[in-house]
Every structure is written in C-alpha cells, then in structure tokens.
Fold each of these.
Amino acid sequence: MTPRSSDAPAHPETATEVLPRDFFARPSLQVAPDLLGCVIVHETPEGLVAVMLTEVEAYDGQNDPASHSYRGRTARNAVMFGPPGHVYVYFTYGMHFCMNLVTQPVHGSSAVLLRAGRVIAGVPLATARRSRRLARTIPREVDLARGPARLCEALAVDLSHDGADAVDPASPLRALASATPVPTAEISRGPRVGISRAADLPWRFWITGEPTVSPYRAYAARRPRTKPVTGPDREGGTISP
DNA sequence: CCGAAGATTGCCT
DNA sequence: GGCAATCTTCGGG
C-alpha cells in the first residue's frame, strides 16, 4: 500500500478502513441503507477516485422477480452466488456498466446496486473520464456519479472488476466504512428505478435532499425496433471479407 | 437458433 | 418529454 511518513491520514475522507465482511453478510434490505455514506475507492494507474454513496437499491435474489438471479445461476450473475463483499458488475444497453455489492445469500443470491454517489476525491479524474463520453455536455460535479452507469464510469469500473473483493484492504477497488454515518432520519426510501417487475417495492434508499441522487424514472417499455430491411439487396452483390 | 428486453444515458424536438 | 444508441444475455420455439 501507499507508504506514509506518519500516522496522520493524507486524505481524511479516504482514510477509513474497509468494511468488515460481516457487514455484507446480512440481507440486502438491511445492508442497503447502511451503505449510504460509505465510500467506494478505486485506485488505478490514472489515479484515485472516491465516491460517497448517496443512493442504493436492494435486490433479493431468488425471492425478488427484479433480481438478475431470480431465475437461478447463470454465467453473468455467478458472482452473486458467491461470498458477500464481492463486486457484481454487469453490462447493459450495449454500452453501460452497473456495479453491485454482494450480500448474504439468504435467498440464493442477493446484492445492492450502487445507484449514485458524490465524488469526494479525484474530481478532476472523474470529470475527465465522464467527459470522454460526452459530446455536447460538460458534466457538473454533482452529476459525475449520479446514476449507476455514471458512477461506474467515474470510478472506471467495468466487467474486469466483476468478482473483485471489495473488503480486501489490498484491493484497488474497496468499500470503506462511513466516516460520519447517515442518521436514519435523513434516509428516504421508495420504489426502485426502471424495473418492470416488483416495481412497487420500496427497496431504493437515498440520502434525503442530496443533489447527487438520480431522478426517479418509472419503467418504460421500449417500442420494438424498426424491422430489418426486407426488400431487394441494395448491394446487388456479395461483399468480400 | 433467433427475437426481444434490458437495474441507462444523452441529445433532440 | 421522446427516442436512438448499441450489444449481451436470456428464454422460448
């Protein structure tokens, strides 16, 4: 790890220790609100980015129709069937990553989706990462990790991190305890965002009034894609590889 | 095998 | 507010 000349933390907001594995060895509905105020740190050759979690969602495995593991184990969701404290990352919409932290496998597999956070270290790096994708928008600081795919991009988390152990102190990607726990009175809860099944369950938790919390969007079915061209082949011939 | 949905986001009207 | 982008994964035929 990084050598320090004294015991004084160089960055107070990133000096807390990793959460104990037991923290995650509980049902998702208990872990989720407790994750608010906790910090995800990712150290890469580019530098360090830390995000304080402000919005999360609980998924309850095979007891939850909205969970990726509802219908059992597959190659994609295998990590959720493993030990708690590990990272489950999935790829969606052909372009986005979302990250979860695995919890107690009471119902076969469970996890908490990290929906949003506030970047508390490495703002310039997070801004640079986000800016790469944006053609006509300059990201505001509060938007850097506002939404699950943005959070992953700000932290440079992708499929290569699927299965990473977030409670290993030596891991570049770690989940740290909250320096100042969020009082229960400041936590709001409501329905999860963008899911079609079990859409009414209030399993989304966020810090009340936090500007980094993503806007709620109800599930909206996408209309069928325009059908492939049927008609004569305009190329009129074969195309050599 | 193939069709369709998807724990989203950004940009345009 | 609407819709395209973009492709993996899953489940049904």
Amino acid sequence: MKSDKEEKILKAAEKVFIKKGFFPTRIDDIAEAAGVAKGTIYLYFSDKQSIYVSLLDNRLRKMIDFLKKIGNEKITATEKLEKIFNVLFDIFSDVKGMISLVTIENINLTTEIMKELRVKTKHKFSQLIDLLAKIIREGIKHKELKSINPKMGALIFLNIAHTSFQAHMFISGVKEQREKIKDIFFYGIKPKSK
Amino acid sequence: MKSDKEEKILKAAEKVFIKKGFFPTRIDDIAEAAGVAKGTIYLYFSDKQSIYVSLLDNRLRKMIDFLKKIGNEKITATEKLEKIFNVLFDIFSDVKGMISLVTIENINLTTEIMKELRVKTKHKFSQLIDLLAKIIREGIKHKELKSINPKMGALIFLNIAHTSFQAHMFISGVKEQREKIKDIFFYGIKPKSK
Amino acid sequence: MKSDKEEKILKAAEKVFIKKGFFPTRIDDIAEAAGVAKGTIYLYFSDKQSIYVSLLDNRLRKMIDFLKKIGNEKITATEKLEKIFNVLFDIFSDVKGMISLVTIENINLTTEIMKELRVKTKHKFSQLIDLLAKIIREGIKHKELKSINPKMGALIFLNIAHTSFQAHMFISGVKEQREKIKDIFFYGIKPKSK
Amino acid sequence: MKSDKEEKILKAAEKVFIKKGFFPTRIDDIAEAAGVAKGTIYLYFSDKQSIYVSLLDNRLRKMIDFLKKIGNEKITATEKLEKIFNVLFDIFSDVKGMISLVTIENINLTTEIMKELRVKTKHKFSQLIDLLAKIIREGIKHKELKSINPKMGALIFLNIAHTSFQAHMFISGVKEQREKIKDIFFYGIKPKSK
DNA sequence: CATGAATGAGGCTTCATTCAT
DNA sequence: TATGAATGAAGCCTCATTCAT
C-alpha cells in the first residue's frame, strides 16, 4: 500500500528514467518531475538504484500477473499467445522508450553492474519467461506449436513483440503492422507453400 | 591504419565497456586494461564517448561490409538470409556481452542521450537495416518471402538472431538451437498445417 | 540581496585571488578560506571565472557609483578630481594587492584570454573611464584644465593614482606623499617657472 | 651567447606569452610557434617559468642598459627624461600587449606567486627604478624638477608612459598624443596660470 | 642535440546522499 | 514528514615534464 508521495515519485522517476536512462538521470530530475524536494525521495527510497529496482519490479509484477491470468484462461495456447502478443505489442509501440525500462534489454544493462538490481530482477525475469514457456509447452503438447525449447520460444516471442519498439526509429505506421508481425511469429516469413 | 597503441586502447575499451557498460566504465579502467597511462588515451581519443563511438563504428562497418558482400552473391534471398543468420547467431551466442556493444540495443541506449553518439551511429544503423531490407525486398519480389514491410522484416530478423544473446541467461546449449530458431523465422512457430 | 554564504565566498575569494592571482587560485583555496565545502561554491557560482567576474563587477560598480556621485556635486572639475584622487589614492595605498583586482591592470590580464570576463568587464571599465572623462571635459570647458583628449586624461589620472599601489615595493611612507603626487598631476614635475 | 634555437624559442615564447598570458600559455604553444619539438625546449630551459624569467630579464637588461646610456649623456635631466619617455612611449604604444611582459604590472603578477620569478626580477626592477630616480634626483638638484621623492617620481614617470599601452583600448590615435602626455608629466594638466 | 609519445599529478566540476531546521 | 542547503568523494580531462629513440 504505497503512499501518494511514493507513487508520485515512482511515476516521475519512470518518466525520467525512460527519457534519459539510469545513469544520466539525476535525483534532482526526479524530484523536480515529482514536484517534491530532493530529500523527500530519500524518505521513500534508500537510493537511486532502489527506485529503479522498484519500477522494474512493479512492471514485471504486472506483466507476471497478466501472464498468470491469461495462462489460466480456458483458451488454446495459440489464443493465449495472441492475446499476450497484442498487449505487449501495443505497450511497446505506444509508449516508446518504455521498453528500456521493462524488457529484456535490462538483462544487458545489468550485466556485471548493479548486482543488487540484477539479483532482485533476475528472479522475476525468469518467472516471466517461465510463464510464457509454460504456455508454449502447453501449445507443443497439444500440437498447436512446433516442438522447440519452450524458453527459447518465449524469448523469441518477446523479442518479436519488442521489435515494435525499435521499429519507430526506422518505420512509420508501426502499429498497423501488428497482425503481420504476429503472423511471422506463428507462420514464418515464408509464404505458405502451395 | 591505426597505431598499435590506438588498437590496444580500443581492444581494452571494448572489453571494459562490454563488462561494465558505458557510464560505469572509468577512463582509468580502460587505461589500466590497455596498460597505458590515463593521459595516453587522450592522445588518441578526444573523450570517453569518442572511444565508444569508434568501437560501435568499427563493428557496424564490419557488419555492413559483410552484408554487402552477401548481398552481392549470386544466391537466393533465402540463402542470403540463412548465411547472415548463421553468422549473426554465432557471433551473438559466442561472444556474449559483445552484443550490448553492437546491436540494436544501442539504438535504445542512445535515445535522448549522447546526441553525438546517436548522430554518428544512426546513419550506420540505418544502412545496416537497409541492406537487410534490400535482401528481403528481393525475396518478396521473387515470391520467396511474404509481402511485408522490408525494414520491419529486417528488424524482426535481427531481433530473432539476437535472441541467442539473451538466451544464455535462461537456457543452456543455445548454439545447438540455431536451426530451430532460424526455422521459426522462416516457417513460424506453428507446425506445418497438414 | 546576497545570501550570507555567497557573501562569505566572495570575501574569501577576493582574499585569495588578491594573494595568488586568478590562475593559481584553486577552488579548494577559496572553499577553505570561506569555510565551506568545495561543492557549496557551485551552489552560488557557476564556475571559477564567474566568481572573479562577480568580484570585479562589484568593485567596478562601487567605483562607478562613487564617480557618479562626485560627478553630480556642485563643485569645480578640479575639486572633483581632487576628491576622487584622494579616495583612490587611499584605497590603493591602504589595501595593497587589492588593486590587482580592481584596476586597469585587469584590462591587460583579460586581453585575449577569458573572453567572457573581458566582455562582462569591458563595459564597466569603459563606463568608469567615461565618467572620469566627463569631469575632465567639463574642466577643459571651464578652462580649468588643458585641452587634451579627456579619455587619455582619465587614464593618466588613474595611472598616477595607481602609482601609490606599486610604490610600496620601493618606497616607505607612500601615504604621506599623496599631495605631492596629486600636485604632479595638476601642475607637473617641473617647478613653476618664475 | 645564445644559440639560434634558444633565441628562436625566446622569440616565440614572448609572442605567445604576450598574447595569452603566462598561465594559459602551453609549452606546446611555444614549441609550435618556435617550430621546434616540445622536448627541445627543455634542452634550453629548465621549465616554463624560467622561459618567462629569461624574457623578463632580457627586457629589463635592455632597458637598464638604455637608461645607463642616457644617464651618462651630457644633457640635462629634463632632456634625458624626454628621450626616455619618447622611447618608452613608442615601445608601449607600438607593441601593444608587450607591456604585460615588461613593465610594472609584473610586480603585481608576481605577488606571492612564482617566488623565483619575483626574486630574480625584483632586483632588476629596483635597478631600473633607481636609474630613473638618479636622473630625477639630478634634475631636482639642478632645480629643473620639483623636490619630490625621486623613486616616486620615477614610478609616476613610468606609469604615465605606460598609459599609452592601455590607451589603445579606449582611444584611437594614441601615438599622436605623445607630446601632450609628456607635457602633463612635466607641466601638469592645469593650464599655465596667466 | 632533437623528437614527440607517454606519463600521471592535480584541477575543476558533478551529484548522490545527509541532516539541521 | 518535508525541505533543500551543504557536503565531499570521485570522475574527466589537461598539460608540464620526462625519456627512449
């Protein structure tokens, strides 16, 4: 049960972190964006990193909850993946930049540095992958999907959805391409052999 | 024709940047890794950022050269993509960490921050995407590939190849999965419908 | 309305700048002299140079105000010059070193270097010369003074007053010589011809 | 008997020191201006300061020699001062900037800092003042000049001549004013009382 | 003698964090 | 709780000086 202030700070921090990245973001930036004094931030967070971890944690938790919910629905694995893909794609293509905060890229960012962040985050990332993998495994079991390493499938799934984020830099009208992209995940880039 | 020292510094810098990331890397770290004095670095590079740009530039140039070479071969678009995928996949799964320096992630890292880096790099990134897109366009033309936005196709291609990098964190035996992953790009995760 | 701290820093900076000069003065020196932490200085000044500019500005403003006041008094140009000379002479011979911060020498110091300082200061220096020149022009008009270039007259006036500063290095009892020196400015070093 | 190289370095150093001042001048600047390698400079001078001292020394020696020569001529003190004034004035108004290297200002520059420079220079400065003072004393003795402290007279004399240097910043056509300025030294700024 | 690549001490400045109010 | 002035550790970069060639 977070206080209003804490929520306000997190919101502000997310905005700034997305815009500038972790290191270039100054506590002052966050304080200003949140409309609180710098000192106030330290009443709610022990340090800069913990704000970041907190944000990542929130997002991952939400995604995990979402995946759990979808995972439990009485629909086919394919339908589950479609639903998830749509949501991810829309988030990624809408929010721009947000991804740098939420997705797989963070694994990289945290390599070797910010042990705390990595430790605290790794577990949730794994959980997320596992939930996706579970759906894929289910799909494989029901012959809906090819037999592949489910985790690898999960990663590919995430990366393809994630593509929508980068696409903005090179292409216009990304959102409209959702179905086509999803189609590649499911059916490949090759046309159906007659 | 770079001097020995410059080469030595670049090598060292790459190692450190990959290990720690741009911001946490200290000039001292690079100097120490290169076995030179701090000041020496500034004989060859104007500042920390320019070392990074230089590295990125080198790698991108190599990738571009490679794509150009493949692009000119007298083989089908599909064969070109296969060759490229194999090489990228192997690089990504071998070198670990290296990717954080070379791939699409950098687009993200450089968003908003480090204008110079972005400017200097954006062009080469675009070129790289364009070369891939050209191959895809060619494939579409010859009905080898579905009709999709070629740049989007290029991005998806890169992201799938890139998956191999992240995969190490969650899966063992990534390298062995190359063909299966490539297969997903070409034919999708769905099994061939009867 | 400057804060206490800012005032304290300026006071300290003046002391150190006078003692050591601009370049050899370290921010640490100023911080120590002011009894604040190094970082604190940057809460009030953007950089070392701006402290210097600020000091110069203050002093020049005071001198300008003084010249304006005298300039408006209902007394002869000669009387104005006498008053001004007395004040300058006393300042210069009292405070020692202070001059290096305040007087014409700075024109020199700032030539070619530290554009910002020069730009910000040049205007006030000119203003000061102009105010003196105005008095001299007035004196010429009323036949109290010889017809000379008023600005040149102003400069000579300042330089002679300034002599008292250097004099300490070579002579004792400088202060007692004020009237004699002033006399040279007004009547020259030659004895009255019969 | 200085070598060519040494002479070349000194010439270059003088140019640069005058343009940029002591501290902002880099050894590289001097080397480049002299057309020699940086290391070469250290074959002839122990350090940056000693170049400066050497320059100052040269100039002062020349001035001293000149004053000695004039001092020994069989002419009145007044004539001697006129000759000296003319020479100084021309130097000062010609070379611009040079003064910062040669004249009284250096006393200031060396306050507290650069002990070596001060020590090595003080003596020559004194000698220079003494030679001028001697002429003034002589003038006083012969009733050509008012009875004032000869050293103070010497300083005033130098400062007035020096005015021509600063004047460039505020006035055009400085050189043409030599006689008028000299006149002020001899007869003051007040018109001859009827 | 001459070179200029290499060194590394030291300066300025930033910014996460603290703490008195 | 909230503030924001103050702190000072730490990083980037410069440049006088050295030294192997």
Amino acid sequence: MVARDLLGRLLVRRLDGEVLVARIVETEAYQQDDPASHSYAGRTARNEVMFGPAGFLYVYFTYGMHYCMNVVTGRVGEGSAVLLRAAEPVSGTAVMARRRGVSSARLLCSGPARLTQAFGVARTENGLDLVDGNELWIAAGRRTPDVGVAVGPRVGIRRAADVPWRYWVAGSPFVSRGGPAARG
DNA sequence: CGTTGGATTGGCT
DNA sequence: GCCAATCCAACGC
C-alpha cells in the first residue's frame, strides 16, 4: 500500500534557491470506490490529476484558505491518491519557519495545510511530477519498518469515517493535531 | 441559480 | 473544547 510505504520517505522542495527536506510521518489513502474521496463522484476539473498517472501531485483548496497535497497512486483513469498529512522537518527549516510564521519545529509541517504552507505548495504546483520533477519530489529516504507504523481511521471526514486508512509513525511528535494525539 | 459544508487551522473560552 | 475564517465544488430546485 502506497500510503503506508510513504512513511519515512523524504519530501524535497527546491524553492527560492534553497532546498527544503522533510520526512513523511503521516498519510491517508483515498481510493476510487471510496465515498470520502474527491474522485468518488467521477472526474471533474478539480480532481483531474487524480485520474492521471501515478506519481504526480494533486493539490486541492479547502475551507476557503487551505491547500492540501496528495500523491496520485492508481492506474490512469482510476482516481486514487494519498494525502500527505504531516512530516518531520529535516533541513531548510528556517525557510519553513519564515513561510509558516512560527519557530517551533513541531508546528512547521504537522498537518496537511501546514505542510503545503511550509513547502510553498498551492494551486500552481498542481500536476507536478513527484518522481522525475526538479521543483518538488519524493526521495527514497528510509522506509519506516512495520514495528514503527500505526494505523487508524482518517481525520475530518464524515463518509467512510471508520475505514482505517490513515498511517503514521508511532510516537512521532510531528504528526498532525487531528491525528493520534487528539484521540484517546 | 442559491445553498451547503468541507481530507483545517489558530485563537479564544 | 469550541468556533470563526473564507472560497468554491457539488448538489438541489
């Protein structure tokens, strides 16, 4: 499963002559036959990228002010993606802090919208190639071993709320607020 | 064409 | 813990 395999991988961003790196610590899977997925009702201008080839970036705007980023995963025409929910800053943290307006490392990328803000990802970046790209891409890093992976229901959705398709690095202080820390 | 509510966050109680 | 902020896609009439 791509969502699980992305834990421990590195998200790399070239921005303003600097290089930002963060280790992915929280993801969620969204599939075609999934009532909670943007692709569930079919192809639209907004979710177009989800139906393209795997390895590309799907960015959407929500709550009137936030962007979230996904890695497209399915076959062409399928409409599946993995939401990147949180990451642990590795380098370029000064740039992230400036973009976020906070200094605490824990607040830089610990949420889907925080991550896009720290990495300078918005509508313009929708559709970028995350495998062969040179602005934003995912590097191998070190895949988190099974013993370090926790699984649970996805955050902030109403439909298919019980399906355990959220993955995170157990015990990481860099996971999102809506994540495991907020639950009993 | 009007209404509704969202894959969130930060600030206030 | 609760709620406003603020745009826009989806859906109902």
